[in-house]
Amino acid sequence: MASEAAGPTPWENPVRDLSGVFKAYDIRGVVGEQIDAALVREIGAAFARLVGGPAVVVGHDMRDSSPGLADAFAEGVNAEGVNVVSIGLASTDMLYYGSGSLDLPGAMFTASHNPAKYNGIKLCRAGASPVGQDSGLTDMQREIEQGVPVGDAAEPGTVQTRDLLDAYAAHLRSLVDLSGIRPLKIVVDAGNGMGGHTVPSVFAGLPLEVVPMYFELDGSFPNHEANPLDPKNIVDLQAKVREVGADAGIAFDGDADRCFIVDENGDAVSPSAITALVAVRELAKDPGGTVIHNLITSKAVPEIVAEHGGKPVRTRVGHSFIKQEMARTGAIFGGEHSAHYYFRDFWKADTGMLASMHVLAALGEQDRTLSDLTREYNRYAASGEVNSTVDDQAGRLAAIKAAYAGRDGVEIDEVDGLTVRLPDGSWFNLRPSNTEPLLRLNVEAADDDAVAALRDEVLAVVRA
Q: Family per UniProt (predicted)?
């Protein structure tokens, strides 16, 4: 019989609530309101306790608040007796390079594409292995909420400064050789983000004429949001590609871990098509390999992977799920509809730069235009993500399930939200946002008219 004097469980009666800052995959919030140096110092200490020694590699983006927050984090790490390797200005995939090549846990200070008032931290274990809610973030949150103090090590850690930019660039060039391609003119829109720091080093000395756009590092994002998935943010890139007669355009998000591609006509190339293109190239090097794709990528992706002798594996949306499946299956590559691309040869981490290099290699190794090259990877029409604000996410999902469950030939799964496949080959996925009262709808069908009809049919129920 249990003792009545057992007392509270370890995490009862927290001192404060940090649930608005600790997210599924990272930590982020408004600087000065949700995140400040004092909290980040505690986070640094909690991370050091989580991962242990000997050191943590730390990088930061170009936001005004990033250097100070990175310093505060280092103080917390040092207070636990753990050293810090500071790599300074970095893209997120450059931080992953540091974590992988040095075999150290890492922390990247960035809020990616979020507005200037935000900042955050992406954390990983040694070898760029992700840290999310189920792999350490929740434990850190609870410790800090409970008031576990920052350590006071008898021998505090030290901070060592290292510049990894040239080594990062050399590593990427060793994975995709662009030295022998035909000369290409490309426009690169860095969005005033970290692509402006990394692109010149990665592309130096290659047969590329780079037309730079917004390479100035500016965390206030004076030209447009650094989120290339929003069509309004690639308008300038599209216009410049047409104006200068470029072979292609590349847009990076704020921390340059995602890339978005436009062809010589200035038309956007879907991330699903890029996933398929890169998968084919990786399978040529590794016949029979496994390729991960999330359940919102086009069904063309698993079709093309299978046609090229690969094994497609479908997973939930989100980088922690992709990386877990890559580790479980030994996958050579993974792609998401959000323009995140993951490579076994890059510690299973995502790197937009390496994906863009694959596209340039595929283009430059033959004479066709990019629109012609990618046409074979575009087989279906898609809606893009359509968001609906709802009061009852579960109730609306149940209504959609009820509306389609009784139809002949309809297949339904609930791997991530609700995926419904119809007998004519069309499908849709409806899933709830983790952070907002939204349902996110993605539809794919044979043509634009079929997409519009299915989209409207689903939204009529969702928004009823």
A: Belongs to the phosphohexose mutase family.
- Name the 3-class secondary structure at 390: coil
Residue 262 structure tokens: 């436009």
Residue keyed to tokens 């709830």 = 432
Cα–Cα dist 418/412, whole Å:
7
Nearest to 191 by CA among 210, 211, 217: 217
> Is residue 329 classed as helix, strand or coil in its secondary structure?
helix
My answer on whether 208 and 307 are in the same domain is: no
- Residue 205, CB-side half-sphere exposure with 13 Å CA sphere: 8
Reported pTM: 0.93
For the domain that residue 63 is a member of, what is the CATH number? 3.40.120.10
Residue 142: other Cβ atoms inside 10 A: 16
pLDDT tens digits for range 330-364: 999 999 999 999 999 999 999 999 999 999 999 99
Task: State the catalytic residue, choosing from 112, 338, 356, 426.
Answer: 112
State yes or no: is 66 an active-site residue: no
Q: Are residues 235 and 298 in the same domain?
A: no
Q: What angle do CA 252, 253, 255 make, to 5 degrees?
A: 105
Which ranges in 203-266 belong to alpha helices (H)?
235-244
Following CA atoms 50, 86, 149, 64 in sequence, which dihedral angle do they give, to the nearest 10 degrees? -120
Tell me how many domains the chain contains. Answer: 4
Non-local (6+) Cβ contacts of 32 within 8 A are none
Tell me the pLDDT tens digit for each residue of 260-308: 999 999 999 999 999 999 999 999 999 999 999 999 999 999 999 999 9
Query: Which two tokens mark 148?
Result: 């576990």
d(CA 420, CA 458): 11
Report helix angle 92-102 to 165-175, nearest 10.
90
Domain final residue, candidates 163, 178, 203: 163
SS3 content of the chain, % helix, strand, coil (to 5): 35, 25, 40
Q: Which of 163, 181, 211 is the last residue of a domain?
A: 163
Q: Is the dihedral of CA 204, 340, 32, 191 positive or negative?
A: positive
